[in-house]
Amino acid sequence: MRKHVITTAAIAALALLAVSGCSSRSTDSGGASKAGFAKDSVIGVALPSKTSENWVLAGGLFTNGLKAAGFKPDVQYAGASNTVQDQQDQISAMVTKGAKVVIIGAADGAKLATQVKAAHDAGAVVIAYDRLILNTPNVDSYVAYDNFKVGELQGQALLDGLKAKKPEGPYNIELFSGSSDDANSKVFFGGAMKVLQPKIADGTLVVGSGQTNIKQTATAAWKAENAQSRMDALLTGTYGTKSIDGVLSPNDTLARAIITSVKAAGKPIPVVTGQDSEAESVKSIMAGEQFSTINKDTRLLVNQAIAMVKDLQAGKKAPANDIKSYNNGVKVVPAFLLPPVIVTKANAAKAYANDPVLSLLTK
Fold it and tell me: Of 108, 224, 249, 341, which has the maximum CB count within 10 A?
């Protein structure tokens, strides 16, 4: 996947677009018929299993937001087991119900080509939500936070945290990445390694286990127990008498599992990154344990997806602010990207000032 690096100015522009609801339209953006469709149409939303707080939150936001806009929402979650089959069946059912738009947070972005083709054949518009759908021409739009930037922010946070604890290296670190069936895992890891690889090459960072590629570092199904088990093995096999200074964790659930492992081993907590601004991780950050997370406000992302549906209903094209970067293996999918925000204890109060729940945890 080729990733366009967005400048600081572009990030600021994205923030303004996200807040204002303005959209830049491109002739390459996802399609709708010129006539649009009825305002009370069925809108399908297929989400993966409830593996994080953000997925749980998204379902309610989609249900309420689409209802408020006059649509008939059909919001479904894939089950914890047989997740991909569940989602395939759910998408097929949405098409049968006559959904005019199907928004998909893919359980496995490489295994939905048949279902999205059926959706297209039935005249529906397909929007990939948060995770890109791969190897099919039948995806009209992608709406997400800039996930390559997320990885860059995580990598830089790890470096900043290490330097704050110990001004000079070398630093012993380990790397974790997400589930191999999630297209975002590669993007997060690629962004982080863009920042970290030069420091590994010059010896500032030392990956004690030698496990530096995405296959070695993957965490199946994004499960906490898988991250904790791997961390247990790393501590036993590599860090018996050595200290570990930092861990690149791709999300908050895994970050907490990694910290649990380190505590059980009786070692000082290293600098650990995260993502998703889960409440327990915000508490951990404020307590001085987890070092950082990423704020990707689900409310803004769902609002943007619903704004795209409104445009399509009115016969307009879905907005896009990146029409070059997200090649799914068959086509470059027009994307609307929102800017992620790094959060540490130092800026948590400011970062969550407008969040009615998380703001209370930073007092």
Answer: 249
Q: CA dihedral in degrees (245, 251, 256, 258; nearest 10)?
A: -50
Count of C-beta atoms within a 10 Å radius of residue 287: 9
Question: How many alpha carbons fall within 13 Å on the CB side of residue 215?
Answer: 0
Instruction: Give Cα 231 to chain centroid, integer Å.
Output: 22
**Residue-range domains of the chain with CATH:** 8-139+297-339 (3.40.50.2300), 147-295 (3.40.50.2300)
Tokens found for residue 142? 């992608």
* Neighbour-count burial of 35, counting CB atoms closer than 10 A to its CB (0-12 exposed, 13-18 middle, 19+ buried): exposed
Distance between CA 218 and CA 137 in Å, rounded?
A: 28
Alpha helices, H only, the chain:
8-20, 53-68, 83-96, 113-121, 147-165, 183-201, 214-217, 224-238, 252-264, 279-286, 298-313, 348-351
For residues 336 and 308, the answer to whether their CB atoms sit within 8 Å is yes
pLDDT tens for 287-327 read 999 999 999 999 999 999 999 999 999 999 999 999 999 99
Q: What's the one-letter identity of residue 75?
A: V
Element spanning 74, H or E = strand 72-77
Which amino acid makes up residue 305? A
Q: Look up the pTM and report it.
A: 0.84
- Per DSSP, the three-state class of 174 is strand
Measured CA to CA, the distance from residue 104 to residue 278 in angstroms comes to: 22
DSSP string of 216-236?
Answer: HH--GGG-HHHHHHHHHHHHH
